[in-house]
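Input sequence (96 aa), recorded before submission:
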Amino acid sequence: MKRGKMKVLMVLFTLVLISASPFAAMASGPVTIQGEVNDSYQIVDSDGQVYEIADTAKGNDLVENHIGEKAKVVGTVQQDQDVKIITITSFEILAE
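Predicted structure, token format:
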């Protein structure tokens, strides 16, 4: 019986590890992205990847004052299904 319990525990542990791995990809450490700010609260990088800008003081400042400009932003990215959301901690407007 001990052997059977051990197998069950190993299977459960493996399932926990497998099921937890998608959550690790949902949030990340600080990243730097360069792209164009648009009026839909997004920044679009040179590869066409779209990041929704989180509703924060820094994010609002970027969108409200720099639509159509290129920016380098630093922040954390979270993924909610197919949508990437960046919470901006700092940004710099780039000269064209």
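Checked by second reader. The chain has two helices and five strands.
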